[in-house]
């Protein structure tokens, strides 16, 4: 199904306005977080508000592929689960990542359910994968000793957000983008094995039980 571009644009505009109203109730970033300010000082990484549901759009590419997918993510660290519902190339799929079951190499137990084309029955696969959807716990920036990367502008977000850089699983450089309400608005990472780059942007985020 294809939606008119003006409807998609209106939806994203509404999402941006809603987020702007929510973040306006939170304290603004202090001048000590502004690059080249005389007051600047390396801030301490914040605790995130980790239980959330969000719409997302993601672009992943490496030396073999390039694809863009959109859908819905539930981040539930209390249950050690991430669920991603997404649509790509005529398929609708649901991936459930069980972070309570991770190999020593960092591969995550994944159950993938896919509907293709006009199929009436799903294809179900289960195995261990290197997930594009990390589990973000409340203290991930603190325990990873995140380095502040500056205040930046992100798609679908009104105003500036803070960028924080970590080494996920001690091996993959990840940048996490966080609003002044300590709510994630997206992330990016680079994996050197296959020269993989992933950009993920959130919108219509609901904080609370996922």
UniProtKB/TrEMBL annotation:
Residues 1-25 form the signal peptide. It comes from the Eukaryota. Keywords: Signal. This is Uncharacterized protein.
């Amino acid at each position: 199904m294809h939606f008119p571009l003006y409807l998609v644009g209106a939806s994203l505009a509404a999402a941006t306005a809603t987020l702007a109203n929510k973040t306006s109730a939170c304290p603004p970033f202090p001048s000590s977080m502004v690059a080249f300010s005389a007051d600047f000082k390396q801030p301490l990484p914040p605790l995130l508000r980790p239980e959330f549901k969000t719409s997302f759009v993601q672009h992943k590419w490496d030396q073999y592929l390039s694809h863009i997918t959109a859908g819905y993510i539930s981040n539930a660290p209390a249950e050690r689960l991430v669920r991603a519902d997404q649509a790509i190339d005529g398929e609708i799929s649901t991936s459930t990542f069980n972070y309570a079951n991770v190999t020593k190499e960092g591969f995550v137990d994944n159950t993938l359910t896919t509907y293709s084309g006009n199929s009436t029955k799903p294809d179900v696969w289960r195995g261990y994968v290197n997930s594009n959807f990390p589990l973000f716990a409340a203290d991930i920036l603190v325990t990873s000793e995140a380095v502040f990367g500056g205040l930046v502008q992100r798609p679908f977000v009104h105003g500036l957000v803070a960028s924080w850089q970590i080494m996920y699983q001690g091996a993959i450089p990840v940048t996490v983008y966080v609003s002044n309400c300590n709510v994630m608005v997206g992330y990016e990472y680079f994996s050197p094995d296959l020269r993989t780059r992933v950009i993920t942007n959130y919108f219509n985020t609901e904080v609370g039980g996922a």
